[in-house]
Amino acid sequence: MRIVVIGATGTIGAAVVRLLEKRHEVVRVSRRGPVRADLEDPASIDALFETVHDIDAVVCCAASVALTPLDSDADVIAGLRGKLFGQVHLLRRAVDHVRDGGSVTLTSGVIDRPTPGASFGALANAGLEAFVRAAADEMPRGMRVNAVGPGWVAETLEALGRDAATGTPAADVALAYAEAVEGDAQGRTFRPLRG
What we know:
Keywords: Oxidoreductase. By secondary structure, this protein is an alpha/beta fold. The chain has 6 helices and 6 strands.
């Protein structure tokens, strides 16, 4: 398969690329690489699909929302623009460019314990997962859409100076993306298991 991985240089994206490129051709997409896209810029997503052709699957690992105080307007709009609306736009455009029977895998997330500033991330994640469940019934030409909802990634926690043992290693998170791409699930949110 020819798989486009958006966010290919991030912690999760790099792990997904390492895993998938063992069995597939992977097109690496990032904000600053040779093939570019930014979820907050719909025109860049349109340009991506004008540039890259013969796509069997699209995997989006680029979506994140910063911890944002409840009273912060600008940060909320920016976070929802990329994480939620950016991925909705990505799916809408991918449907016209992914081959029959192909797939699109988006990224939601898990907020399993209350964290100050996480309410808008929870909103984006829940909205995205509901969107994936509903959009699955509308996918044309035998296409599939799924999401992966990773919690904290061990490497991210370590970079933040927190206990990495409470997170899931990126390599284990990548397995969930591979299952979404290579399997036959439709409208599902995969939850990576801890190593």
